[in-house]
Amino acid sequence: MFKYAQSFCVLVEELHFSRAAARLHLTQPALSHQIKKLEEEVGFPLLLRSPHKVVVTDAGKILARELAAALTLVDRAVEQARDVARGDAGMLAIGYCELPQAGHMTAIIRRYRELFPGVDITLHNMPTIDQIDALQKGAIDIAFLHPPIHQTNLSLQFAGEERIGAAMRADHPLANKQGLQLSDLSQERLIVSAEEIGPVLYHSIVSACSKCGFQPVLREERFRWHAMLDQAAVGLGVALVPETLCSSSNDLVVFRPVQDLNIMLQTAIATTGSPIKPVVSSFMATAAAFVKSNS
To answer: Where are the alpha helices (H) located in the chain, listed in sequence order?
Structure first.
């Protein structure tokens, strides 16, 4: 029925075969044929034939009214589906670690929302290891996480990196020094991300201390970066944390660069392999352009 619905609705609007045919870019005989086929399909007459005018039957008027409403819904459905197909609309679930500024995540999402306001975004805060699992299960579409990642079915796109610095209570003796050497921390208990959570970062810190000539006393945090700041604030040790965390406002903690601690925390944007959703493709393209323009 929908095959000839538009032709019938236009004819009812015009009440003139020639004008309706012109609007539809059809010949008049072709339009007449379509209306006849529609009448055969519905099983009752839609028009009262007259050599001088088009008269629509009462049943035809009802059918035209309902078909016009249905065609509006169909057009809207097609447009919505088209938006989703080209990545202009849809749903996007993004996982991220505890540092929303890492890898320009906040700025990238803001830019993406400017370009694609029709996409519904949800954010899910979880550790890197949990993001990997969520990606593989399809619970999230995109992950802002910290490499290295060894899963071969994930695709990584570099988003940024930052140095590791030292956080300590505001009245700590070392707080008066604007720049630290790693050797300044040799007598301190160092609060670090646990080996089971971030083995590469953990072993990089241990190795750096060893090269500096001391074996560090470590306090491992297994859950959150901000918990390391809490521990530093109450004097349980000096926390080695990323610079973006060091930019947080906290009167109880001060942050100092460690000049010879050349350890970088990388952030990457991870996705699963193909097939990939259009909204994911548009997000990754937006992220790549943003990182390139800010590198």
So the answer is: 2-14, 17-24, 28-42, 58-85, 105-115, 128-137, 199-211, 225-233, 243-246, 278-293
Of 235, 262, 232, nearest to 245 by C-alpha is 232
Q: Which two tokens stand for residue 186?
A: 């040799």
Instruction: Spell out the alpha helix ranges (H) of 86-198.
Output: 105-115, 128-137
Give CA–CA dist 204/228, Å, rounded.
18
pLDDT in tens, 117-160: 989 999 999 888 889 999 988 899 999 998 888 877 889 999 99
Does the pLDDT of residue 249 top 60, yes or no? Answer: no
What's the pLDDT tens digit per position in 206-227? Answer: 999 999 999 999 999 887 888 8
Q: What is the CATH number of the domain that holds 183?
A: 3.40.190.290
Mean pLDDT, the chain, whole residue set: 87
Do 143 and 222 belong together in one domain? yes
How many domains is the chain partitioned into structurally? 2
Residue 277's identity, in one-letter code, is: K
What does each C-alpha distance from 285 to 52, 87, 129, 279 come to in angstroms?
A: 60, 11, 25, 10
Residue entry with tokens 């309902």 = 66
Q: Are residues 134 and 9 in the same domain?
A: no
Q: Are 199 and 129 in contact (CB under 8 A)?
A: no
Q: How far apart are CA 60 and CA 65, in angstroms?
A: 9
Amino acid (one-letter) located at 191: I
CA distance 20 to 16: 6
How high is the pLDDT of residue 236? 95
Q: Report pLDDT for 247.
A: 65
